[in-house]
Amino acid sequence: MKARHHRGSSANRRFWKGCQRVTSLAACTVAILALLGVSREAHAAVTRPNFVFILADDLGWRDLSIEGSTFYESP
Questions:
Q1: Hey, what's the torsion of the CAs at 27, 29, 35, 38, to 10 degrees?
Q2: pLDDT at site 25
Q3: Domain map of the chain by residue range?
Q4: Which are the contacts of 5, defined by CB distance < 8 A and separation ≥ 6?
Q5: Is residue 69 within 8 Å of 63, Cβ to Cβ?
Q6: In sequence order, what DSSP letters do the residues of 24-69 get, joined into one string?
Q7: pLDDT in tens, 21-47
Q8: What is the pTM of this model?
Q9: Which residues have a Cβ under 8 Å from the Cβ of 61 and sit 6 or more positions away?
């Protein structure tokens, strides 16, 4: 009769091997994401954003010159 711990040892080894794979995969993922973040920061420091954000309050469609408005008044 085999000892009980021998019967589960194969399953135990598979479990720990699976844990090792998951841990390795997680470590590789974190390392890749960290490297991508560093390269993006270096690239972002060199280039400027290529968009303009305009915030207009109380702007209607008839307030634009493209819609035919000729009234322009500054405060």
A1: -100
A2: 82
A3: 4-67
A4: none
A5: yes
A6: HHHHHHHHHHHHHHHHHHHHHHHSPP-------SS--GGGSGGGT-
A7: 888 888 878 888 888 877 666 665 666
A8: 0.39
A9: 67
